[in-house]
Description:
Mean pLDDT: 86
CATH superfamily: Globins
CATH topology: Globin-like
Number of domains: 1
Distance between the termini: 28 Å
Order of helices and strands: HHHHHHH
Number of helices: 7
CATH architecture: Orthogonal Bundle
Structural class: mainly alpha
Helix content: over 70%
CATH class: Mainly Alpha
Shape: globular
Largest sheet: none
Radius of gyration: 15 Å
Amino acid sequence: MNQATANDQGMTREEIALVQMSFAALGPSLDGFAAVLYARLFEKNPIIESIFRGDQTTQQARLTEMLGVVVARLDRFDELRPALRGLGRRHVTYGVRPKDYPAFEDALLWTLEKFLEARFTPEVKTAWHRFYAVVSGIMQDGAE
Length: 144
């Protein structure tokens, strides 16, 4: 593994640090963050809203909890792989399709930009894009 690479997914130590610092900067606004993210996702992709049954507050809490766990363990990513594969399998049963993943990434990046404002630099955006590519790739592998 090259010295700049912090995990076998190809995220650099700098990218990991950027994702972790920017996630921490969301701090107490995480609940609002998740609500805005889902509102944006459903606004731009109304068909996806039908996938989400049940209490939205619970779904939002699950998202922020999962993001927190994954972001915190980016330097020990192999510990997360089985859980992410399982999450991908479960998402298939909910009706999530491979073509839905880019829509979620768009909503995630848009929401991060809204909440982080000037702190959402091009480097932070690239780090989150890489993060999402890694996580969603493992989830989709688990879904197959």
